[in-house]
Amino acid sequence: MSAKRPLEVVGQPRRRVDARAKVTGQTLFADDLSMPRMLHCKLLRSPHPHAIIEAIDISRAAAYPGVKLVLTGKDFPVPFGIMPVSQDEYPLAPERVRYVGDSVAAVIARDEKTAEEALLLIEVTYRALPTISSPEEGLAQPMPRIHDYGEQGNIHRNQSYEFGDVEAALANSDHVFEDLFFYEGDTHMALEQQASLASIDGDGKLTLATSAQNPHYLHRQLSLVLQMPASQIRVIAVQNGGGFGGKCDPAGHEMVVSKAALMLGRPVKICLTRQEVFYQHRGRHPVLMKFRTGVTKDGKLTAMHLQTLLDGGAYGSHGPASTFYTGVLTPVTYELPRFKFDACRVFTNKPACGPKRGHGTPQPRFGQEVQLDKIAEKLGLDPAEMRLNMATKANSLTSNWLGIGSNGLAECIRQVVERSGWKDKHGKLPEGRGIGIAASTYMCGAGVSIYWNKMPHSGVQLLLDRSGQVTVFCGATEVGQGSDDVLASIIAEVLGISTSQIRCVTGDTGITPIDLGSYSSRVTIMMGNAAMQAASRVRELITAAVIEPLETTPEQVVMSQGRVFAADDPNKGMSFVEAVVLAETKFGTLGTVGNYSPPKPPGKFKGSGVGPSPAYSFSACVVETEVDVATGLIHIEKVWIAHDIGQSINPVHVRGQVIGGVYMGLGEALMEEQVFRRLPAKLSNALVHKIPSLLEYKTLTSADMPEVEVMLIEEPDPNCPFGAKEAGQGPLLPVMPAVANAIWDAVGVRIDEVPITPDKVLRALKLKRAGKNPRVGPEYFPDVPYPEPVFVLPPGEGGDGKESKKLESMPANSLAEVSTS
Amino acid sequence: MMRLPWFNYRSPKSVAEAARILAAEGRDAMLIAGGTDLLPNMKRRQQTPATLVSLRQVGGLKDVVNGRGLTLGAGLTLSEVVNTPALKDSCGYRALHQAAAQVASPHLRNMGTLGGNLCLDTRCLYYNQNEDWRRAIDFCMKCNGETCWVATSSKRCMAVSSTDTAPALISLGAKVRLVSAAGDRELELNDLYQNDGTEYLTRQPDEILTAVSLPDLSGWKSTYWKLRRRGSFDFPILGVAAAVRAAPDGTVLDARIVLGAVSSRPLMTEAGGLLLGGKLTDEAIAAAGKKATSAAKPLDNTDLDLYWRKDVVSSFVGYALREIRGDDMSATRLRIMRQL
């Protein structure tokens, strides 16, 4: 124990530890790496969306001058996949290609150009198969199956959960609203294209330096695919030039260069082209949604039945988790006594979808928040007030058994309402100008690891020596989100030193303790808690070493601003370096470890592992827009966003993350779409990505970015280091529905899908002028064979968190007025 | 990364020397100025010239001659065009200034040239793709294939003219000088183009576009409005250039309205003719907008919905003509184009 003092590092706006290197161009990204005798790899990709590989002839390519090795599917007999239940990918397709861009062969040559030239000499004989371009087609066409596993036909995952008798609750509601929404798929658009460099150490061990968010999971998968002990493999996650979920999956090209380096004994590198990044994808699932929501006449939710249909693309990826995430966080923002959700993921002949910032939750969040706007409109309530009146509370359990700790949602709503002048604007601005609100939540780390184990989710190791230097080791991965800065800040705060005295060694499976990776907004909380534990243990050693010379008690020892002194007599003290010398003298070489495992989730039913988190962040957003009624062109005037961060570790940085979330959110709201073209069937079998280029896949430029006003709500969460919650994903979520709601307020049209483009707005305006329903969005929800639900009683109805039998509900005479809005 | 194919590189010092090389190399040679369009196309193997003849060191291509009218060297970068005072400060030439200022992004304008933008390859989402993407659709009529995928029964390629400066310069009545080893000629810029996505220029392969000359436009007002998804980078999906000469009482004496990006060539419309002899009233502007709309034939081979792109032609013609009439359009201009 030592004396309490105010925070010195945490909460202070500071230059982040990696800022200087990044701004001056000194940071080395994976493609900057180069080694003597390094070879280059290029991949041959399928021109067919779905085909059997009948033969591959590599002889001409292998004989091409400068070519060192040609690999095909035969060289990789073992499949892999990020989730244990979806081991369905091969580094190179052995017998079947499933989308245009699936890799079938690799050439390793003296330079990239030679490799590229040799690719054209590989002769592949394909037999084309019928293709599936959408989940609707996949449901209607069970054969041929894209994969020979999954629920049935081309359904990959299919599930249903019911928390309390939803139909009974809907029947007793004053109103039931039924709405369809569609969220188009989009991709991460990290500026750095994936690159990997594999090399062999002097003793024969493999080192893979790569753009990866989750080096630990990649490490395990490499061991599996290469059939090599993990102890012989070292994965270094190089500083990533952005990830956003796109570098979470182990990728085929990483296995290919590793295998090639092992076979050739020389370093082998690959850097994907932008087009290949679009093929690697793992981005936002396109999701069709149906909401049936019951409300009381004063605007409280009674129950919700949510159905989702996901377009999974050609492989499993994180899909099983993504499928859950289209439902599980829905009840976290507003009190929802009963909840049922059905979700189905279908394979299609397109690049695999996976996790993108917000993982599976932006889609239902969009639908839910737009539907709430419609409900408020119908009931004559202010949409902000209505949300405020039903916001969930701190220390509560949701109907689907998620435990909410701290909760700043209401404060977020209050702040954006006040700062934006909501009350003077909503419904009161002139035609063409409008304002909309939405709120959201996100997890601070997934409560359960991707593979089943009882070991820590994050480990941190600290090393100090007589020079006063502090080196911290952690497997957490810097993807630009600032995890190194969070790590250094937490150690610095505990030890009373500055972040400049700390060296971070991170994301290296060969030398850092395991951290599960940069996904699910888990790093600040999990790495942070582990770092606090490691640093507190060092502080105890130092304290024990200084009490004698300072003639004080442990409770009186203060470590602050590079000094160690007694609280009752601050003149009695020494420098941090002198204190470390005393500690090393007393205890020998100084090192400590810390680790963190999240608390056990309250739910006990099968499937309850997806959704629980040590804490939840909350956000609220107001968007003001101007819409031109002649053209439908949308101009975003300003965005106000409040984010419940718990405690900012570095407020400059949190604001950056929040504004970055708004930037990405506006892109998804207004223009981003990963879409495909199917050519006329009579002439062609082609099913291709429409726009796999940085120019034609539209994201906002700096010129398109509106002013963003950020408010940080700080209600420290007891489960989090210094109370700090996440900022990496949550603030994206309310942006899209807030835009849609603002457009409604501006011109009275509903665009129930993203992206919201000017042509859709103009189409809806024409419907409005013709006296028709002024709405553009999905028109029907297909018949999905969802399974019988897993029934769990909600906490409010005496449930114990386990699956139970559903009591036969009384045949309800529905008095509810069904409103289709 | 994507790699360039092999090519020979020639670096002549004069137009005459460049013309001689072009004549000797024939169709296998291509000119390169800024390279901002050509080099990405070469990386995608849409163009694979055996020889590149660089204009970088050719003297005289950056000359600006300001006499009766204005002559601009084709080698001026777009940034240099933007910063030419004779354009910026003139009501008559303003459309060119505005068009050049909206090409691509600042970096690309620092490299790309006026001549390059006039000769810009036509664009199409079935064409501006990597070689392996195009292989997956069995290529297209414009390069290595047979079918025009955007209009499968079309006999000609429907790729889109995507230059910003050409509609502006045509509205200003510009002429261009073409020099070859056999001699030189001057022609109306409007006649440099033809409505075919593949053979979109009437320029012969051995001709070098060296200069653009503009007539004296005192008494004229011109403007350029560009529609694109974002405030930077993007090629136009609609360009509206308008130039009007009016009597002191506002009666229109001359008017030209040219559309970009709705066809395989910049389109001189008949909308200008409708305005002659009248004033720029709301009704006259609406009629011109309607006339221009009927000329626009957007297809599903560029960004955004094609029907919508046709729908908004009238609005954009309206913005341009109202601006020329003297309405303050700066707020609209800033909202749509992110610049004044």
Please provide a written account of the structure.
The complex is a heterodimer of chains A (821) and B (340). With 821 residues, chain A is α/β, with parallel strands linked by helices. Chain A folds into 3 domains: 19-26 and 455-596, Aldehyde oxidase/xanthine dehydrogenase, molybdopterin binding domain (Aldehyde Oxidoreductase, domain 4, 2-Layer Sandwich), CATH 3.30.365.10; 33-129 and 191-242 and 247-280, Aldehyde Oxidoreductase, domain 3 (Alpha-Beta Complex), CATH 3.90.1170.50; 158-187 and 283-447 and 605-776, Aldehyde oxidase/xanthine dehydrogenase, molybdopterin binding domain (Aldehyde Oxidoreductase, domain 4), CATH 3.30.365.10. Chain A has 19 helices and 35 strands. In chain A, helix 14 (483-495) links the parallel strand 20 (470-474) and strand 21. In chain A, helix 14 packs parallel to helix 15 (523-550) and helix 17 (651-670) crosses helix 18. Chain A starts with 18 loop residues before the first helix and ends with a strand. Residues 810-821 of chain A have low confidence and may be disordered. By secondary structure, chain B is an alpha+beta fold. Chain B has 2 domains: 1-59, Uridine Diphospho-n-acetylenolpyruvylglucosamine Reductase, domain 2 (2-Layer Sandwich); 64-118 and 160-337, 2-Layer Sandwich (Enolase-like, domain 1), CATH 3.30.390.50. Chain B is built from 14 helices and 12 strands. In chain B, a hairpin with a 1-residue loop joins strand 4 (64-67) and strand 5. In chain B, helix 5 runs antiparallel to helix 9 and helix 11 (282-295) runs antiparallel to helix 13. Chain B is globular, with a radius of gyration of 20 Å. The chains are: A alpha/beta (821), B alpha+beta (340). The interface between A and B is large, with 42 and 34 residues.
